[in-house]
Structures are given as C-alpha cells and as structure tokens.
Amino acid sequence: MALKPGQFYLREMPCIMHLLNEHRLTPEVIVIDGYVYLGDYTIPGLGIHLYNELEHKIPIIGVAKRRFKNTTAESEVYRGNSKRPLYVTSVGIAPEKAKNNVLSMHGKYRVPTLLKEVDRECRKS
C-alpha cells in the first residue's frame, strides 16, 4: 500500500499501540519520528492520531528531520552545530516545552541519540 503524507499513521500507529499494550506502558510523554500536525497545523499527522487513540492522556512530541510544505518557522529547533533544523510539533504539551525537551535530549549532533537508535533498530526489521 502506497501511503501519502498524513497517512503514515495507518502503518505506524498499530505497532506503537501494540508495544504500549503488550508491555502495559504508560509513559509521561511519547516522542515520535514525524509530525503531530503537518504543515501549518491543518493536516493531522501520526502524533495527533496517536494522541486521540490514547484519549488525550499522554502528550506527544513529534520530531521530523524534513520540512513538510507550509511548516512554520516556530517549529524549528537547531541542535549542536547543525545548520539544518529539526521540526518539532506537539500536542498535550506546550510547544516551547516540547522544543526544550528535544534540545535537552542526549547527543551532540542534530538528531538526538535516542531517535538515531530507534531509527537504526527499525531499519533492521
């Protein structure tokens, strides 16, 4: 099935929900590789679908490496010495707090260590 922007949740959300349910996890916040909202907050992304599925109980922070059209400059976060931003969107947590959380994540480069590791593990399967 070819997925269009805004539809990746159809592939990824079942895996996230399975992980949360199987291990009975109730995290304080979930950080995803992707957007909560795409563009100028008009197109729902994986993050808002996940937030709704979790009945608005767990805040979601989306961290995207590529800019989606109409993404606002307010979502940009520069880590380390990188000249290229990450794009941080959120729901259930203030945008500035979400951005500060991403800035404080481990790793001296653009992409936080944890997100690099998750991406590496996912590519193995």
Describe the overall structure:
The protein is an alpha+beta fold and 125 residues long. It is 35% helix and 17% strand. A hairpin with a 4-residue loop joins strand 2 and strand 3 (43-44). Helix 1 (9-22) packs parallel to helix 2 (46-53).
Key terms for this structure?
35% helix, globular, alpha+beta, archaeoglobus fulgidus dsm 4304 fold, single chain
What topology does this entry show?
Layout: H1 9-22, E1 30-33, E2 37-38, E3 43-44, H2 46-53, E4 60-64, E5 76-77, E6 86-91, H3 95-104, H4 113-124
Parallel strand pairs: 1-4
Antiparallel strand pairs: 2-3, 4-6, 5-6
Read across the widest sheet, the strand sequence of neighbours is 1-4-6-5
Quick one: biggest sheet?
A: 4 strands, mixed
Beta content: 15-25%
- Rg estimate, integer Å: 14 Å
- Beta-strand segment tally: 6
Instruction: Quickly count the domains.
Output: 1
Please, how many helices? 4
Shape: globular
